[in-house]
Structure formats: C-alpha cells, structure tokens
Automatic annotation (TrEMBL):
Protein's UniProt keywords contain NAD: no
PANTHER family assigned: CYTOCHROME P450 4C3-RELATED, CYTOCHROME P450 FAMILY 4
Protein's name according to its UniProt entry: CP4V2 protein
Predominant place of localization: endoplasmic reticulum
C-alpha cells in the first residue's frame, strides 16, 4: 500500500508539472499569436493580409515560398499582415528605408533568423542589437580602405587561378555550372583575407558541401509546418533531418576549428599585437584577449564572416555571368570598356589594378542591375524595439517586419519594365529622375553589410578577369520571369544556371 501511494504521488507530481508546462505554453502561444497582432492605425483599421486558409500555400513547400510572397505583394499593398503570426510584410521603398534606417529596427530577434543561430551562432548575423554593436566596432578595422587595398593582390591571384581552372573544364565547349567554381574561388578569397590562410583542397570541398546542405535544411525549417510549433527544436532534434543537422554542423565546426588552430600555430600574442598587416582574425584574437571571448564565440564569428562573404561574392557573380551570357550585346559593351583600359594586353602583362576599378563604370551598372533583379538577400527581417509608424499604420513594439527586397526591386511603379535587364537604369542622369537611387545591394542603414565594399571590389576583379579571357554563351536564353528562385537566407536558383565558355581573341 505504501508503494502504491509513493508511485501515485510521484505520478501526480509529474502530471502536475506537465499540466503547468502546457498551460504556460498555451498562454505564450496566445500572447504571441493573438495579443501581438494589434496592428492598427488611429482610426482602428486593421492591416490587410491573406486569410488563414492560405497557410497551406506558404507552409510545406520551401522552394515556392519566395514566389508566393511576391504574388501576395501583387494583391496586398505594403504593409500587410502575414497570416496569424506577428509578421508584417513591407516592400514599398520609403517604408523599407524607414525600417532599415530606424534605430528602433536594428534587432533581428525574430523566428526568421532563429534557426540560423543553430548553424552560425548568435554573432554578426543574428545577434541582439547590443552584442551586434560591440562586435561591429571590434571588426570594422578589418574592412577599412587600407585593408581592402592590401587584399587586392589576393583578389587578383585567385581570379587568375579561377580562370585557369575554367579554361581546363570548359576547353571542349562543355556546359559549366559556374556556381560551384566561383564558390570555391570565393571561399579561398574569404579564408585568405579573413584568416590569412587557405583551407586545404579536400577540406575546402567538404566545407562547401557542408554549408550547402545546412542551408537546405535551414530552408526546410524556415518554411515548413515545423516553424508553427512551440516544440520545434525538441521534436526536430529527434528527427532524421535534425540528427543530420547536428552531425553536419559538427563537421563544419571542426573544419573551422582546425583552420583556427592552424593559424594560431603560426601566430602568438606578441606577433598579433605588433603586426601592422592585420587580418580580421588578428583583430578578432586581440579582442578575445581583452574581452575573454570563448573558443565558440571566435569560431562562430569566423564561420559567419567566411560563409556570408563568400556567399555574396558567389551569388552575385553567378547571376552577372548568366546575364552577360544571355545578353551578348551587353557583354560586348562590358568587354569594350575593359579594352579601353587594358587594350590587347594579357592578364599576365596587365593584371587588374585597384585604380582600374574607378574606370569600370558600365560594369558597375551591370552589377547593380543584376543585384536589383537578384538581390543576394531577397528577404530581410527586423523586430521593432519601439512603436514605429509605417505608412498609415503604427506598428507596436515587438512586431516582426519582413522586407521583401526582391519584390521592391521588381515593382512597375518604381522600376519601369522591371523584368527587363537594363544596366542603363543606373546612368547618373537616369538615377536622378527615378527611385533607382534607393538601391541597396547588401542591406542598408546602421546594420548594413559591413563587407559591402569588400564584396564589390572582389566581384569587379573576378568579372574583369573572366570577361577579358572568355566569351560567355548560353544554349538557350531564359526570360528573367522564368528563372525559378528560392531562398534560405540568401538567394539561389531551383535549377542550376549553365553556360559555355570560349577563349576570347584579344586581337
């Protein structure tokens, strides 16, 4: 009898704990999904938005999510509420400018980025405003103009290596998936400039495949029915995909830890403090001595910088190359501009120099037009830390904002004939007469991309090297509206973009 009461009382205690937990979760769910949805203007009009039954179109189909959000933008004016989640979608330029430049919109503590934290950590990408601000100040010297000029030779050397590699791969006129080759080149550039050391060839391939797989898992989690559940993390970790994420993340972490240890072996504290040619890693290590950074914090910062930097370079160049191959007349104009700079000199006798970039005006227009159509980060998330007025609506504190950047860039009223690839949109005289002066290649405002100049310089160097060497071709041109896109945190195509190359006659 005693044992019966003993076990009975224990069972009741457990059930009570479970009941209390479920009650707390239910209250939290109610607050998050209903109390936080008071999006009203002063005359009490409720924000427009799709009905709840449309959720089936948004969840369970990760590859179509970006396209569906863009379709919703055609039916609902900015801003609009997204389902029964505390999300407000915006795409109108002035509203986007308000959010990105407001000091009350710097926080990224929204579910849109939560799953990314499990992969990249809570550092530069998703850190709360206070942590982000400290980290930004520490690493800013690593992207100064002097540092970028010092990196320049690395950009040139890696571009030449990429050209030699592509020449061997495409020598027989084979179709090439440029993305993979650019990605390894961009990874070499990122490791060399950020860490001061390159990954070994086999580990570089491992890292690339690891990051690509983790991004696929991230996309599934962001846009599947799982993200509606409060117990997502608990259940997901026990699924096959969850276990794969943990295993793959550990591999990525181990590869970066090896790189860190390898570089630490080459440096000591005294050398880092006296070295005038400091890399991002040198600066990070100096900060770690002063602020007691953990090994995990150092690793997460390195992963974030290497991955996001190489991603932006790879994605932009991949789309620019495809656009130039699809529009040979524009490609020829870019080549003629380069020819005015280098004449018929070869890459060896006349490599790209830093000052040359100032004369690549048309190439700059081509890059900007490509990024307008294919922004590397098509969706940006923010959380309001105070009430903010967006359009005619006052959105309360803790509202999650989703900026559909790609939708803003493809609006007819802001960009006439928006799906036409027209680099001349960015001619100085045309910029003055339209909204194209609000062009944000890699985000904007106080929390913009710290590596924007770094990315643009490396992109120009690689493109100039490739276009001086090859004529780019496609078997069949694809209309821009028919290029199917998807997103995790960055933009990619559902089907890989393929082109052919032919060695250019310099005469």
């Amino acid at each position: 009898m005693f044992l019966f009461y003993y076990y009975y009382s224990n069972i009741m205690i457990v059930l009570s704990v479970v009941l209390i937990t479920l009650t707390c979760v239910a209250i939290r769910y109610y607050i998050r999904n209903y109390c936080c949805l008071t999006y009203v203007i002063r005359n009490e009009n409720i924000l427009p938005g799709p009905k709840k039954y449309m959720a089936k179109y948004l969840y369970g189909n990760p590859d179509e999510l970006l396209n569906i959000l863009c379709i919703l933008g055609k039916y609902f004016t900015s801003p609009f509420q997204l389902l029964k989640r505390p999300f407000v979608v915006i795409y109108e330029p002035n509203q986007v400018k308000t959010v990105l430049k407001s000091r009350h919109c710097l926080d990224k503590n929204i579910i849109f980025y939560k799953f990314a934290e499990e992969i990249f950590g809570t550092k530069l990408l998703t850190a709360p405003e206070s942590i982000w601000n400290q980290n930004r100040k520490r690493i800013a010297p690593g992207f100064s103009l002097n540092m970028l000029q010092r990196f320049f030779n690395t950009f040139v050397e890696e571009s030449l290596m990429l050209t030699n590699k592509l020449e061997k791969v495409g020598v027989n006129g084979n179709e090439i998936i440029f993305f993979e080759h650019i990605a390894t080149c961009a990874l070499d550039i990122a490791c060399s400039t950020i860490m001061g050391i390159k990954m070994e060839s086999n580990k570089k391939d491992q890292y690339f495949k690891t990051v690509m797989r983790l991004k696929e898992i991230l996309r599934y989690r962001l846009y599947s029915v799982w993200n509606e559940s409060w117990f997502d993390k608990i259940i997901f970790n026990f699924t096959t995909l969850g276990r794969e994420q943990q295993k793959t993340s550990k591999l990525m972490h181990s590869l970066i830890n090896e790189l860190i240890q390898q570089q630490l072996h080459e440096l000591n504290k005294t050398e880092m403090e006296t070295n005038t040619n400091k890399t991002f890693f040198n600066i990070l290590m100096e900060a770690s001595h002063k602020k007691n950074f953990t090994q995990e914090m150092i690793r997460d910062n390195v992963i974030t910088m290497i991955t996001l930097t190489s991603d932006k370079i790879t994605i932009t160049i991949n789309f620019v190359i495809f656009m130039l191959a699809s529009f040979p007349e524009i490609q020829e104009k870019v080549y003629k501009e380069l020819k005015t700079i280098y004449g018929t000199e070869t890459l060896i006798s006349a490599p790209v120099k830093y000052d040359d970039l100032q004369h690549m005006h048309y190439m700059d227009q081509v890059i900007k037009e490509t990024i307008r159509l294919f922004p590397t980060t098509p969706i940006i998330g923010r959380r309001l830390t105070e009430d903010v007025k967006i359009g005619n609506f006052i959105l309360p504190k803790n509202t999650s904002i989703i900026i559909i950047l790609i939708l803003m860039n493809r609006q007819e009223q802001y960009w006439p004939n928006p799906l036409k690839f027209d680099p001349d949109r960015f001619l100085p005289e045309r910029i003055k007469d339209c909204l194209s002066d609000y062009h944000i290649p890699f985000s904007d405002g106080p929390r913009n991309c710290i590596g924007t100049k770094y990315a643009m310089i490396s992109i120009k160097v690689i493109l100039a090297t490739l276009i001086r060497t090859f004529v780019l071709k496609v078997d069949k041109s694809i209309q821009i509206r028919n290029i199917k896109l998807k997103t995790d945190i960055t933009l990619s195509t559902i089907e890989p973009l393929k082109i052919r190359i032919k060695k250019r006659d310099l005469q």
